[in-house]
Specification:
By secondary structure, the protein is of the alpha/beta class. The protein has helices spanning about 35-45, 45-55, 110-140, 175-185, 195-205, 210-225; strands at about 5-10, 15-20, 25-30, 70-80, 80-90, 95-100, 100-105, 145-150, 155-160, 165. It has a four-stranded mixed sheet with strand order 4-5-7-6, covered by helices on one side. A three-stranded mixed sheet has the order 1-3-2, with helices on both faces. β4 and β5 form a beta hairpin. α4 crosses α6. It starts with 5 loop residues before the first strand and ends with a helix. This is M48 family metallopeptidase.
Length: about 230
């Protein structure tokens, strides 16, 4: 059976990964210099897994396309670990509206990445910062400030002055991954290095630690990608 897939290349990507989107499309995320032969080999190797995912009756429901809405080249964007379609809409609203999909005013079509980025930053402040305070209370630690920043190199950081910084791109990841990064940085207020005691603290607060680390390892590059 023929297996169709889209190749998305990026100079920032370091390894090949395959994802099955909510509309059942298969996307291969590849470094810019990987030959198509290597991509075909990976797809062939994952063929059984892909067909299993594609025929999952609940996870990948077809996405209806309402009349009068225009897709932006079939683009989609991540939010809290899931991929949602982008649509251009008419109207006077000047901001993005999220309703199981990203509804972007048609006037912002060319600047959709900029307006989507601002939307991400606002959602990061709204959802991540309260969880920092909640986990800090659970761990019994105090911090000076928690901020959302634009780091290209770290998901989170803890400064010598006990300030915590979190990359806004984390809002694209599942909540259990966000919680892992938060707890990781808060644990540094107890244990400065990555000694066994440090990891015991993180694991005790977040039993899904290994699963979150695996998710970041496999999908971290996707969080860095622009639409």
């Amino acid at each position: 059976m023929e297996l169709r897939y889209e190749i998305r290349r990026s100079t920032k990507r370091k390894k090949l990964t395959i994802t099955v989107e909510r509309d059942r499309s298969v996307v291969v995320h590849a470094p810019s210099n990987v030959p198509e032969g290597a991509i075909r080999q990976l797809v062939d190797k994952k063929r059984s897994w892909l067909f299993e995912k594609l025929h999952h009756e609940q996870k990948y429901q077809p996405l209806p396309h309402p009349p009068g809405k225009e897709l932006v080249n079939g683009e989609a964007a991540l939010y809290l670990g899931r991929s949602y379609r982008i649509e251009l809409v008419d109207g006077e609203n000047a901001t993005i509206h999220f309703a199981g999909k990203f509804l972007i005013p048609r006037a912002h079509a060319r600047q959709r990445w900029q307006v989507l980025r601002q939307w991400y930053v606002e959602r990061a402040r709204e959802k991540i910062l309260p969880r920092v305070r909640s986990h800090a209370n659970s761990l019994g630690v105090e911090f000076e400030q928690a901020n959302i920043n634009d780091s290209r190199y770290r998901w989170g950081s803890c400064t010598p002055r006990n300030n915590l910084n979190f990359n806004w791109r984390l809002i694209k990841a599942p909540m259990f991954v966000i919680d892992y990064v938060i707890v990781h940085e808060l644990a540094h207020l107890i244990e400065a290095n990555h000694a066994p005691r440090f990891w015991n603290i993180v694991r005790a607060q977040l039993p899904a630690m290994e699963r979150a680390r695996d998710w970041l390892r496999d999908n971290g590059q996707r969080l860095e990608e622009e639409v």
